[in-house]
Amino acid sequence: MCARTGGHLFVTQKQSGLGDLINLLDENKLYWVGGFQYTTLIWTVDNTRYYRRLGYMSDVYGGHVTPSTIEDNSAFMCNMRCGTNHGLFGLKGQSCYCFGDRSEQLIRRSYIANDITHTEIRCPGDYTELCGENRRISVYTGVGHMTNISRNGIYGYATKYHRNTRKTTFHLDDDRNRKRFYAYKKPTEVTRDGSGLRCRGDVCVSNTTESWAAADQQNHRLLKVTDSNKEHFWSAMHYQTYWIGLRRYSEYRWINGNKLARNVSRYYSDKQCLAVRRDESHFDLGWHRCSENYNAVCQSHNRISTKPHTTKDDTGIYIGVAVSIVAVAMLCLIVAIILLKRCV
């Protein structure tokens, strides 16, 4: 669409900027503009992300793994694709590598460089993450390299397996009012009698049930599971499932990487794209599946000469005809690669 004429999807930071479209858009029709939302996972106690970038490695070492293609590739989406193939996973553009049983070998042989290159690109599904470069793969992990996350839901809980694996898996629940036992960091002082707590190391779990919302309070936030406390957590778990301080979180961005400040409807779902509808002089922005086939509002930036040795920006806005979802997807990736390379 827009890329074919040297432009990109329309971007504005102010509501008044939509007024430029009033003579371009037909009433009650949807048009793509340059915004999208994507999903990540955060720990509520400190708002840090669940996924950690370990570094990068040469794609030569990933040659034994057949990557899968994910249009809106990110750590979250790649982890979902890997499923029960636990371990490290790698991101390279739209390619997702599930390293599984080879994870420990990659770490043991020091194939992963704990650094950031100047040419790693941002991920098409999450502009805050890096997705490798031409010959390198960005490597990510969750907690302990051996957990998997369920695809659906918002609020985090952990399930204990009683086999010899001493494994705990994480899941997401849509219902934050569901009653479960819960886990959190051990308080400074714990009364043994009548405390209602079962503690191992610096982790405590309850002997009573609460909703996720009630358990995750400011005075005792739900547990952030780490490599250093995961064994204590497993030992403390007496029942099968416990609320933990993990939740699904959506980010809203323009394709230039800026936050989308305008208040539009929020959904916890996979990547969605932003469309605008005109009703007389009023504009409505809303999220829609990126696979929908709409026309697009395009924007061009042509630098033209005004006086000797000076230039100015001549911004043109026009309507691009949507051919297929492939065009929308490829445009988002192209803009991410060209405009949003991360420099350190």
Written description of the protein model:
The radius of gyration is 23 Å and the shape is globular. The protein has 344 residues and is mainly β. The chain has 3 domains: 2-39 and 257-329, no CATH class; 51-147, no CATH class; 155-248, no CATH class. The strands form 3 sheets. Strands 1, 2, 3, 11, 12, 13, 14, 15, 16, 17, 18, 19 and 20 form a 13-stranded mixed β-sheet that branches. It has a 5-stranded antiparallel β-sheet with strand order 4-10-6-7-5, covered by helices on one side. A two-stranded antiparallel sheet has the order 8-9. Helices cover 12% and strands 36% of the residues. It has helices at 75-82, 103-108, 212-215, 230-236, 325-339, and strands at 8-9, 30-43, 48-49, 52-58, 68-69, 89-92, 95-98, 122-123, 126-130, 136-141, 155-160, 168-173, 181-185, 197-200, 203-206, 241-254, 272-279, 282-289, 295-305, 311-320.
